[in-house]
Amino acid sequence: xxxxxxxxxxxxxxxxxxxxxxxxxxxxxxxxxxxxxxxxxxxxxxxxxxxxxxxxxxxxxxxxxxxxxxxxxxxxxxxxxxxxxxxxxxxxxxxxxxxxxxxxxxxxxxxxxxxxxxxxxxxxxxxxxxxxxxxxxxxxxxxxxxxxxxxxxxxxxxxxxxxxxxxxxxxxxxxxxxxxxxxxxxxxxxxxxxxxxxxxxxxxxxxxxxxxxxxxxxxxxxxxxxxxxxxxxxxxxxxxxxxxxxxxxxxxxxxxxxxxxxxxxxxxxxxxxxxxxxxxxxxxxxxxxxxxxxxxxxxxxxxxxxxxxxxxxxxxxxxxxxxxxxxxxxxxxxxxxxxxxxxxxxxxxxxxxxxxxx
Length: 358
What we know:
The chain is an all-alpha fold. The protein is built from 13 helices and no strands.
């Protein structure tokens, strides 16, 4: 399980940015015609598209990881599914169902010449273990809340023993997670959504403690399982609900760390601004005086350059025309988009011919 979580963390680290770049490239290749300029990295339009695609990719990956966790639980199955029993089955129903399965899978009922005899024997032992666990009220209580891991707790004989063993195995997860979140908060990391992160963590802890210590299923399962009975998805046991809740919470925390920088743009800090000291005020006054002197000198030099044209309206108009032509030639026509537009217009004229001629 730890290796699965590690691979999931690696996927969250690299895949969203990688997939976002691929999708953005494909998107521009579809919606932008050949020859038209594409938004360049760093431009507002490019950043807006990348932000939207990145949010979509993170949301899709979040749903995928939750679906993957649910698929692993369904593939592993549980004792109720293996025996084909509802979750509220009584002792008589368990025994009746096991007798029917034993008539099919008991080793004495299987031909010794069959090649899958060992597999059938192992499956029958598994069914026998499932029956024995569900017939014992104490073990059934522990199985519903802790899953098949409780089968290895041989020293437990009462409900309190199973609860103590289960809490000892669950406690380090919450203690380590809470300490890790506290360290991140103290060091200044993951500040965005900190309140909701702590609230989700405390909600998960409350759900687990309520589920483990109560003799009845949590209210969430009472609402969810009746809906699942009308779908191909089997009803959930308490330990399966807790497994999905832990996986969803961890995945949600990682998703928030990915999306946080997009919703919390860095604001200029007041500490980065220089204090308004007398020395700073004096420097600003000197800078203002220098700017005014430079502006006056520039005006004087411009007046000297324009002195030969004083009183000559024709020369002034000619100078304005030449300046206007220079601006068109060197500024407007040098723009890549203007050049592309002029090239397309000239190309259409060459192909279609000049209007009004032969």
